[in-house]
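can u pls check wat happens w/ flavin mononucleotide
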Amino acid sequence: MQNHTSEKKRAVVAVTGASGIIYALRLLKVLMDNNAEIFCIATNSAKEILPCETGGAKDIYGALLRECPKEYAEKIENISFFDESDFSAPPASGSFFFDAMAVIPCSMKTLGKIANSIADNLVVRAAEVALKERRTLVVVPRETPLALTHLRNMCSLSEAGASILPACPAFYQKPKSVADIADFIAARAAMAMGFKQNIFKEWGYEEKL
Ligand SMILES: Cc1cc2nc3c(=O)[nH]c(=O)nc-3n(C[C@H](O)[C@H](O)[C@H](O)COP(=O)(O)O)c2cc1C
């Protein structure tokens, strides 16, 4: 049962301290293109890694301003940003409806905590809410190689209803830039969350659209 006070679809995007923050930035751009109401949570580790991967941006807000064209500025202003310690944030409760959540990129630490319901921060709590309320949860793990513990945690999450969408870009779209490579994962994550994407056309329909 949806208890929706918003006309827009709601998306929760959690960013953790795995490499690949660009995947989150590109997904946020796709969600802004969908006019989604966006709730973005960054872990403390994500904030530490962010400057290394985004040319010095201090936070996701600053990184998005750099990553997106100027016309996105107003939409970026409308994103609600939360720290991992903020359990007063709406996604901490099942009484707050959201359509889908992505954890992107997802560290093996956060993946293990979600798989075992160790809800000691807002990211894991919101993911737990998504699972218990039978909502869409998309987890985008980034690690290589994988330990057996990682694989077992992914298996548990898949059994619990999450979609495991590894950060494995494809190359048949002939990417020309790092942003193009990241866009493939962003588009697949948006699709798995139930949002539209216009980054690539469906296979077999490239000429027909
Ligand atoms: C530069 C750097 C890159 C990292 N990349 C990864 C990664 O790709 N995957 C991963 O699982 N952990 C990675 N880590 C380790 C995580 O940041 C660490 O486990 C952290 O505690 C995760 O916390 P969080 O899940 O709360 O964000 C990386 C750490 C650093 C410093």
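The mean pLDDT is 95.
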